[in-house]
Amino acid sequence: MNEFYFNTKLDQTLLLGTKARSVAELLNGIKSAPESSIYYHTHRYLQQHHFLSPEPPNDFAYWIQEVLNEPRLGELMYSVDVVQFNSLEDLRNKFIEILEQHSTGNGKGQTAPEGQEFHFMASQTFVLRTPYVANDLKQFAEILRKISVNSLYYHIFDAKLRLEKGENDFSRWFRDLGKTALADEVVRLDPYTHTLEGLRARILQLVQQHDKN
Amino acid sequence: MIRIEDYAPVVGQATIDELYLLAKSLEGKQVQNINSTAVGGGVAEILTRMIPLLNELGVQARWDVIKGDEKFFGTTKKMHNGLHGVPTEISDDEYEWFLEINRKNAEEMSFADIVYVHDPQPIALIEKRAQLGKNWVWRCHIDFSKPVQSIWKFLAQFIKLYDAAVFSAPAFARKLPIPQVLISPSIDPLADKNKDLPPETINSVFERFGIDRSRPVVTQISRFDYLKDPVGVIKAFKIAKKHVDAQLVLAGGGATDDPEGPIIMQQVKEEADKDRDIFVLFLPPASDVEINALQRGSTVLLQKSLKEGFGLTVSEALWKEKPTIASAVGGIPLQIAHKYSGILTHSIDGTAYWIKQLIHEPEYARKLGINGKQHIKNNFLITRHIKDYLLLFISIFHREDVVYLS
After folding, report:
1. Least enclosed by CB within 10 Å: which of A132, B140, B191, B394?
2. Range of the domain at B246
3. CA B406 to CA B401: how far, in whole Å?
4. Which residues, 6+ apart, have CB-to-CB distance to A202 below 8 Å?
């Protein structure tokens, strides 16, 4: 049997009790933070503002731009294309590379005013199985219409980057069904540039197209 | 009584279904909340709403209140002030009495599987853990950013004995050997202060106060308190008014125990002078529907605070789908992403600038309002608060980054 079990996930936010006042301290923090912290700070806006497109940037970029008032560095951090990364370690190293390059020859730089420090946080994720199971594309589409955005989020974002499965859960299942073209099309979507409802609608559209073929 | 299903039309059935799924993971476990007052104050308000909803979800939740005398509560009041950064000294005798009262309560109380202790008053109940075991979590509802060191040191010895500590804002986190969890406060969309109102109710409130709804209305709802900067609001409004035709409403109550209250009111009256477009409304307690109507009927809402804890009035403003301008202080930046879901300002001039912008650009203002409401819907309603409580209780038994619940 080739079934797709829909899971959902809910996150608890952990406070790590460490903070940064400057680019140098941010760099140290990023180096030593757990992966769940890198995940939190690159996905918080996406989760909390999933109805916005374009979304605000990752927390590191936002803080550098808005608090430290360093627009060039902020832009470099902003433009890190999360969709290109298959592991949180690789993503962490990209941020480290940008910050280290900036630190060379840039003196001490700005310091955040009191009360506007960067606070390191992390996500603890709880995965739950929903009662929904799809046996074919038709059932998959019906369920996709009604699941929560958390379920969509889990199978698309968590599956690929947090759980390091290489690609999203939907595409893996489509491949198992022999729907390789559909799997590839869903992989090609850049989920970071859609609202979650927009993403749901786009995947639904693709599934319905391929279900007819 | 409000039931959990009543929230489904607001947040969607899928969100309610997820709460039921989560609650299943707590089957067979009892949760006990402990605080120091059954009525009055934010904690009692949250627990009054939460406990019935948790039980309805299938969680066996109960709530106990510790008993204390005048000396005990005098000491805990000092602790409260000290945690807010007010220079305070507590004597050895007072600390000893604080512990004595906690021990007495611990002897008289029975404890559930999960003991959820709110604020400093009952914090030393944890001493009972050595004898009883159980799972213990401490929740701090207080602004903890600059505590008096001696008080912090006293409390820290107990906090370290808990399984986890919960704070309302990232800035309150400390270097602690136990996990620290962020749980933001929330608003209840079905409460009088936030529920949908028919247009007639809104109109009648505006008519009663003589405010003209055919012209733009800028409103700040808050206590007449120095920290809410009502005088700054009037100054910003006067700057903006040079270029826009608008009215200002300052509405709220005043804390009766605040000695500065009458001074602030006097300053507000002087600043408002005889401007007939400025309405200063001193509202009695239980004016929730009036406050709701004033927010819903306004063009732009303000929260120009100089200092805030979390600033739930901002959540209430955003929930009404109104473009909101607020100071970037306390928990307000968690609620507003600047230029996406509202406007964050740092000065009187900045506030004046954005009042003009939002009145002149109603389309942009409308978009901010829509995004602001969505943000509150996703992150600051009571259903999210319930979810956080359930996750917190479940997390005591799981320390992994990713937890698979069957």
Report:
1. B191
2. 199-379
3. 16
4. A189, A194
Q: How many CB pairs under 8 A join A and B?
A: 109
A56 touches A15 (CB < 8 A): no
DSSP code at position B397:
T
Are A13 and B181 within 8 A, CB to CB?
yes
Indicate the SS3 state at residue B338.
strand
Single-letter code of the amino acid located at B39? V
**What's the Cα-to-Cα distance from B140 to each of A3, A202, B36, B84, B173, rounded to whole Å?**
45, 43, 13, 12, 10
DSSP letter for each residue of A74-92: HHHHHT--GGG-S-HHHHH
Chain B residues within 8 A of A63 when measuring between CB atoms? none
Mean pLDDT over B305-328 rounds to: 92
**What's the token pair of residue B148?**
């008096």
pLDDT bucket at B258, cuts 50 / 70 / 90: low
Are A51 and B371 an interchain contact pair (Cβ–Cβ within 8 Å)?
yes
Within this chain, do residues B62 and B110 fall inside the same structural domain, yes or no? yes
Contact A125 B337 (CB under 8 A): no
Instruction: Give how far A17 is from chain B: nearest CA, Å.
Output: 5
**Contact at CB, A126 and B17, closer than 8 angstroms:** no
Question: Which residues does chain A have with pLDDT short of 70?
Answer: 1, 49-56, 105-108, 213
Yes or no, beta carbons of A14 and B182 under 8 Å apart? yes
Within-domain flag for B194 = no
Q: Which residues of A touch B400 (CB under 8 A)?
A: 124
Which tokens hold the place of A59?
């927390």
> What 3-state DSSP class applies to B279?
strand
Which pLDDT score is estimated for A105? 65
Report the distance separating Cα A109 and Cα A26, nearest Å: 12
pLDDT in tens, B116-157: 999 999 999 999 999 998 899 999 988 777 889 999 999 999
Q: Closest to B391 (Cβ–Cβ): which among A117, A126, A130?
A: A126
Q: What is the pLDDT of residues A2-41, one digit of tens each?
A: 899 999 999 999 999 999 999 999 999 999 999 999 999 9
Domain boundaries, chain A: 4-8+127-212, 11-122
Do B116 and B129 lie in a common domain?
Answer: yes
Comparing CB atoms, the residue among B145, B167, B391 nearest residue A15 is B167
pLDDT of residue A13: 96
Mean pLDDT of chain B: 93
Tell me how far apart the alpha carbons of residues B32 and B51 are, in angstroms, rounded to a whole number.
10
For an interface test with A, the pick among B140, B381, B401 (most A C-beta atoms closer than 10 Å) comes out as B401
- Nearest CB neighbour to B340, from listed A10, A49, A129: A49
Min distance B17 CA to chain A CA atoms (Å): 9
Angle subtended at Cα B44 by Cα B41 and Cα B50, rounded to the nearest 5 degrees = 135
Q: Are residues B386 and B371 in the same domain?
A: no
Q: What CATH number does residue B323 fall under? A: 3.40.50.2000
